[in-house]
Every structure is written in structure tokens, then in C-alpha cells.
What we know:
Number of strands: 8
Radius of gyration: 18 Å
Helix content: 40-55%
Number of helices: 13
Order of helices and strands: EHHEHHEHHEHEHHEHHEHEH
Strand order of the largest sheet: 2-1-3-4
Distance between the termini: 22 Å
Amino acid sequence: MNVQLFIPCFVDQLYPQVAFNMVKVLEKAGCTVSYNANQTCCGQPAFNAGFWGEAKEVCSKFIHDFQGADYIVAPSASCVGFVRNYYNKVFDNSSSPVAAKKTADRIFEFSEFLVKVLKIDDFGSVFEGKATYHDSCAALRECKIKEEPRRLLSKVKGLEIIEMNDVETCCGFGGTFAVKFEPISIAMGDQKVNNAAATGAQYIISTDMSCLMHIDGCNKHKESGLTVLHLADVLASGW
């Protein structure tokens, strides 16, 4: 199966190992992975900030960069949720609604692609330790992803998953929300860290490095001793 890789801005700049680990897992699953080096942003930051005209230009480039019939897979439910749910609004009353819909129909978050499309949930991964899982708002509410990452993690040898309290509550990041409403954002992040630490877990795992980046900032400030990991990092371990 041919797969086009979309790597979000913050993963590209700050957490490139997540992208490499995702490729490692996809190739083990038998996929032929391609990466268009001309790709940039999906357009979400500009759209959320109210710059819809500028966002449309970025989204148009995204559609052009990912034209074709192959699946598009990304290690971010946030980006996937935006393309899937908001490109129709961006291109409403334009000449590109069909192209936008076709692109939205082809894009998948990493865990849902593995479980729903490839129908593979065991990669022979080995990772020793106790972890708790964080549901990102985008994964849970925009992409309806909850069972898929847990199913994948349940097959990882040596890994114990412990659910935290208020697991479906936002971590407080929310993109520009963390900048505009910093005190509220920090308080929400601190609460998420407290709930995670209360499980006795060593690791916090999620589908979204944007959430984990925020959680990790609160975690280091509180010196809670937790380590954040993307799902791809765990699945690529032990083989």
C-alpha cells in the first residue's frame, strides 16, 4: 500500500524522531512511504487565528502537494482533524470543493490508519514500564479516536497502561489558546500532570506531540518526573 507522509510543523522542527519512528512502523506493516519535501503547514494555525484568507492559500498548497489517490498519514490528530472537518469551510464557494473533499477523505491519523485501514494492531513492540494515555481533544472529538491507540498499546509487551482520572479533559494547550489564555492553560496542564502522576506511571503517551509538548512543560516545571512519548515511539521500540 502506498502512503504519503504528512509531517506537522512542530514535529518537523522539534520532534523529528516521531516522524522517523512512524515511517519505521508503516514500512514494517508493508507500506511504501513517500515524502514530498515541498510540503509545509496544513493551514490550521492561520485558520484558528481568524486569518481565513491566508489559511486558504496554505490549504491550497497542501491539496496540491498531496494530490493523487494514495492515503495520507500523519502523526497528529489535530492536523488530520482540521483537514477532515474544516477544509470544506475553507473552500466553501470556491473552485476547489471537490479537491478539498477528496483530500479530506484520504487523510488519516497514524493509529486509526494502522487499526482501521491496515487492520494491524500488533507490531511485536517491546517497551518496559508503566504508562498512562492522554486523549487529545482533536483525536477524541474531531476524529473520534479512542479505542485505536489503546488497542495498539495493549499489544506492546512489557507495557502496563493505567488510566488517569478525567482522562477526556483537555490538557490546556489548544494552540493559540495557550498563548492567549496562559494562566488557564497552565492550570489545565498542571491538573493533567497531577492526574497522570497519581497513577504511578512513568510515561504519558498520546497521538499528539502538541499536547505532549505542553504537558511536558508543566511536568518539568512541577518536577513530576514523567516522560512524554508519542505512540509511534512506543510502537517502534523493541525490534
